[in-house]
């Protein structure tokens, strides 16, 4: 079968993708419109819900950037199966730059260190004021986005150039840039998670916190990629190359990230709990009382224990529909875990779920999904001119 015929098969899917894209955009805009109404009634709650939703969706964008760089370093059929999904997802970063704008107006509602009256009577915040201040916060945020944008732009551009020119030397360029990309990804996500999330409680700190976000983003992105690749696996050219082994590899990788996430999370808990320091332990006390403990229990069971047991089975990983369901559940549990991390900063005494906590992720997600589909339709589902492609699938 020729490359042109393969692309034509994907072309036949595009009208259906157009329908999904339109519906996602409409639903997203309606949900955000309702959140704007909510912002008029309760601006504080709007900013809290919006921050939570934004953190979830940018997690997929940044995780896609990291995983596509990892793929260029190690190769393999599993990576080629999801490469174009990851590239399309990462290239939605310009949209996320625009969508972060509302948070600029909610700094004082979100971060107590942004309130001069609070800082004036808090010795700890005065010590951290050189780092935790609004101008420097946005300077750092701008630097993060510039770094991410540069690497994502090069990774996408060179991949597209290789599609057009079949230049084998581009593979070497992709590999050389991917190592520094992963290193800077870890550093920038670590510091951005400190700025955007950990500073919600500026008296608390954890040296492991940033890495929890790094692994969480990778796990969320891989689950999302599995869901999408399963949905596209019956269409050429993916249907020509994907076999049970590739789904098995993706399942193994997801299980590895589940285990690594659990290890990092438990390590953080044990270190802080055993230290029992007054500036550290309240963070967990707030999340283990007032109803939040049931959410924590659900995370332990459905984010770690059950997925781990299911992914131990070869049958789960090799049957794509079963793997699809596990990945879909993991996406939901990543949302729950992020809510458990963020929301108790605002409601430490009692668990609280506002209707904007539901609509904000739907709103941002609808717009993001429309942009993702737009990018996905712009390229073939496989990098057909990458010289490693044939070798990877022949080896598999």
If you compute it from the alpha carbons, what radius of gyration comes out, rounded to the nearest whole angstrom? 22 Å
- Which strand-content bin applies to the residues? under 5%
Low-confidence stretches: 1-8
Helix content: over 70%
Number of helices: 20
Structural class: mainly alpha
Question: Keywords, please?
Answer:
396 residues; mainly alpha; 20 helices; globular
Please tell me about this protein's structure.
The protein is globular. Helix 4 (77-90) crosses helix 12 (209-232) and helix 11 packs across helix 12 (209-232). The longest helix is centred in the N-terminal third of the chain and has 32 residues, at 43-74. The chain starts with a helix and ends with a helix. The relative contact order is 0.17. It is built from 20 helices and no strands. The chain has one domain. The protein has 396 residues and is mainly α.
């Amino acid at each position: 079968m020729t490359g042109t015929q393969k692309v034509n098969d994907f072309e036949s899917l595009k009208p259906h993708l157009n329908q999904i894209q339109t519906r996602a955009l409409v639903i997203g805009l309606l949900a955000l419109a309702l959140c704007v109404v909510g912002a008029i009634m309760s601006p504080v709650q709007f900013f809290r819900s919006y921050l939570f939703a934004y953190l979830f969706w940018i997690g997929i964008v940044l995780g896609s950037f990291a995983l596509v760089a990892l793929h260029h370093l190690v190769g393999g059929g599993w990576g080629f199966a999801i490469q174009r999904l990851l590239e399309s997802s990462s290239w939605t970063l310009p949209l996320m730059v625009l969508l972060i704008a509302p948070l600029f107006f909610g700094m004082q509602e979100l971060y107590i260190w942004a309130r001069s009256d609070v800082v004036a009577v808090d010795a700890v915040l005065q010590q951290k004021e050189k780092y935790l201040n609004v101008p420097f916060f946005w300077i750092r945020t701008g630097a993060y986005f510039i770094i991410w944008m540069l690497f994502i732009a090069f990774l996408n551009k060179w991949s597209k150039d290789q599609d057009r020119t079949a230049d084998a030397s581009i593979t070497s360029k992709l590999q050389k840039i991917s190592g520094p990309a992963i290193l800077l990804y870890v550093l920038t996500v670590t510091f951005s998670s400190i700025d955007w999330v950990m500073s919600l409680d500026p008296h608390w700190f954890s040296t492991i916190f940033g890495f929890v976000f790094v692994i969480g983003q990778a796990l969320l992105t891989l689950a999302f990629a599995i869901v999408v690749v399963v949905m596209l696996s019956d269409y050429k050219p993916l249907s020509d190359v994907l076999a049970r082994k590739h789904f098995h590899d993706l399942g193994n990788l997801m299980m590895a990230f589940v285990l690594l996430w659990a290890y990092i999370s438990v390590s953080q808990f044990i270190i802080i709990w055993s230290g029992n320091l007054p500036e550290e332990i309240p963070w967990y006390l707030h999340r283990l009382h007032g109803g939040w403990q049931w959410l924590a229990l659900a995370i332990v069971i459905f984010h770690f224990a059950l997925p781990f047991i299911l992914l131990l089975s070869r049958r789960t990983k090799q049957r794509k529909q079963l793997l699809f369901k596990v990945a879909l559940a993991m996406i939901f549990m990543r949302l729950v875990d992020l809510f458990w991390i963020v929301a108790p900063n605002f409601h430490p005494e009692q668990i609280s779920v506002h209707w904007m906590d539901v609509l904000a992720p739907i709103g941002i997600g609808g717009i993001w999904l429309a942009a993702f589909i737009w990018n996905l339709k712009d390229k073939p589902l496989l990098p057909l001119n990458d010289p490693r492609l044939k070798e990877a699938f022949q080896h598999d």
